[in-house]
Design brief:
Blueprint (H helix, E strand, L loop, with lengths): L3 E7 L7 H10 L7 E5 L10 H9 L5 E4 L9 H13 L3 E4 L5 E2 L3 H34 L12 H12 L4 H8 L3 H12 L1
Parallel strand pairs: 1-2, 1-3, 3-4
Antiparallel strand pairs: 4-5
Helix pairs in contact: 5-7, 6-7
Length: 192
């Protein structure tokens, strides 16, 4: 017999899933023991979230999963699509209230997901384009890009000499109050 599950997620401890639960219960009949809530960042892929993985273990072919919004499944369109495809491959329907309760595994749901994915990809490409233009402008204006160096040029020269004398990277990192990685980069910069 097909069962309906609800997945509600918030990102921080000061948030609550109460509104999501109420919205789902107003539109679908869900047994309270089939409502899964968790507090975890949407940037973590759904398949890596403890609550979502436990949910997957409980669901069977023919079941349905309801979410209030697509971003409850993931922060980016590629993760959402992968999650919906994984559920569909296991015979689980995915309904999204934000899209009128549409089943995202149905033909019209797949089309909608395709449009959403293309829009997300377009937005990502625009962001990359704007970022590259901003970096090019800053570089043309003579601005230094990237993280500031942890060590001065003089310190880097000192480190190179001390390394030649056989002092370990770990000892130098401790002496200069920086990481072993910074010592390695200083040594490489001085060698070139």
């Amino acid at each position: 017999m097909a069962r309906t599950f609800a997945y509600c997620r918030v990102s921080t401890l000061d948030q609550t899933t109460d509104n999501q639960v109420r919205e789902i219960e107003a539109n679908f009949t869900v047994d309270p023991k089939r409502i899964i809530t968790e507090t975890v960042s949407g940037s973590l892929p759904a398949m890596e979230r403890k609550g979502f993985v436990k949910l997957l273990e409980r669901m069977e072919s023919g079941d349905a999963l309801v979410v209030t919004k697509l971003d409850r499944l993931g922060r980016n369109a590629m993760d959402v699509r992968a999650t919906v495809e994984k559920l569909a491959s296991e015979g689980v329907r995915v309904h999204c209230l934000q899209l009128g309760g549409m089943d995202l595994t149905s033909p019209s749901g797949k089309m909608t997901m395709g449009v959403i994915n293309h829009v997300a990809e377009f937005e990502r490409d625009l962001l990359i384009e704007r970022t590259q233009a901003g970096l090019s402008r800053a570089k043309a204006e003579g601005k230094t890009l990237g993280r500031p160096m942890a060590l001065t040029v003089a310190q880097q020269a000192e480190i190179a000499e001390k390394r030649k004398a056989g002092i370990s990277m770990r000892a130098l990192a401790k002496e200069y109050g920086t990481s072993v990685g910074s010592i390695q980069r200083a040594e490489v910069r001085q060698a070139t």
